[in-house]
Amino acid sequence: MTECTESSFGFEAHFSRQVVARFDGGTITSDGGALLLRETDRRLNLLPRLAGCFLDGRNPLLVRHSVQQMVSQRIYGLALGYEDLNDHEQLRQDPVMRVLAGKEDVEDEDQALAGKSTLNRLELSDGTPNRYKKITFWKAALDELLVHLFLESHVKDPEEIILDIDTTDLPLHGKQEGRFFHGYYDCYCYLPLYIFCGEQVLCCRLRQSNRDASAGSLPEIQRVVGQIREAWPKVRIILRADSGFCRNELMGWCENHGVDYVFGLARNKRLRRIIGREMHEAEEQWKQTGKPARVFSEFGYQVKKTKKSGWDRERRVVAKAEHIDGKENPRFIITSLSSEKWAAQALYEDLYCGRGDMENRIKEQFSLFADRVSAETMRANQLRLYLSVMAYVLVSGLRRLGLSPRGIGDASRNRGGLIDPPHRPQREPIFGPHG
To answer: Using alpha carbons only, how large is the chain's radius of gyration in Å?
Structure first.
């Protein structure tokens, strides 16, 4: 067998410069940018608190990989685009990944990070006594942490916040616990519930798909609103969601607890008749201009109360009578906000339509592998959803801190930003005190 002894290779020169390949670069990584995420975590104090949401039942004398190291390894891996546990068979040797996870020695092979099997046991523990799976997590602690992170991101109490509520589908391709076929999405899936405020996530709850979109949303909203009001007792809160959450139980709770709402309202024949004049007006405008025409109106509306459905009171409905491309496009929203504060057109175009930005936030969850719910149990898949959301919190924190005027872009005003300016020792004066 021929032994390779070459230490460098020469290539064709680039004008006057030599092009040489060498093998003396030492330990190299392609994920150097992750150090910015590490600085972000240092400011947010995310990963130490996330590790505190786990209960470690292992013998401390035999532990080689702490919970914080394993959780950090998993979160940073997701943020860097490594979705699969198999990726960590190589990442465990990566020097930057060792730095991120908190390993003291980044060169020693004995200081490698946790492998795929160890990380798998972390995810699959169900809290029951088990010889091999001795680490479990508390849902309540993780839920509270998400809201705490949101509260801490504000320097002062806001006067008003808008909470966006929505759901999405996570397709399933196996025999996972709780799988059901969903007719709208045309696949077997989970139906997780998300609550956002701007770019920040406050709740991620994995749910089965054999239920109404709003099922289980009220307890989550009660928990989030309660935690927010403990910190900000005077803040005005507005809930914003599509027609899937237009339910009497949810609207009634909001009205009884000083929370405003603006929800989509599914159209029906009765609503269409009510706005008949406005639809005709919009059609005439479209015929004259050839451009989309909108006419707004509002009225009181109540769904007849029955044993299983209906509303217990009349509520304000805003209607958009729109005619586009030769066809009708009516839309309706229901709200507790008064017409004195929000006129019909402004309510729809400025407030309600703003919820479309939440769709972008949900898409970002998929970029961080929220749909990687291939574990057998719902509990394990809920943990994977938490890990994905925490990776989002880290990336979102980098975007918020690193791109702010007080972040890395302005060293002169860097206090409270992402990276502290380097310490510069004070120079001694060249001349004495008398010049």
So the answer is: 28
Residue 420: pLDDT band by 50, 70, 90 thresholds? low
Phi, psi of 218 (to 5 degrees): -60, -45
DSSP state of 242: -
In the prediction, which pLDDT does 108 show?
A: 76
Place of tokens 């406005």: 278
Tell me the pTM.
Answer: 0.87
Closest CA to 192 of 165, 174, 155: 165
Q: Which residues contact 111 (CB under 8 A, 6 or more apart)?
A: 98, 103, 104, 105
User: How far is it, in rounded angstroms, from Cα 134 to Cα 204?
Assistant: 25
Q: In the chain, what are the domain boundaries? A: 34-137, 139-303+311-367
| Mean pLDDT over the full length of the chain | 89
Read off φ and ψ for residue 272, nearest 5 degrees.
-65, -40
Higher pLDDT, residue 300 or 132:
300
266 SS3 class: coil
Q: Which CATH superfamily hosts domain 139-303+311-367?
A: Transposase Inhibitor Protein From Tn5; Chain A, domain 1 (3.90.350.10)
Q: How far is CA 351 from CA 117, 238, 267, 333, in A?
A: 48, 10, 19, 11
**Secondary structure of residue 204 in the 3-state scheme:** strand
Dihedral sign (CA 198, 201, 205, 209):
positive
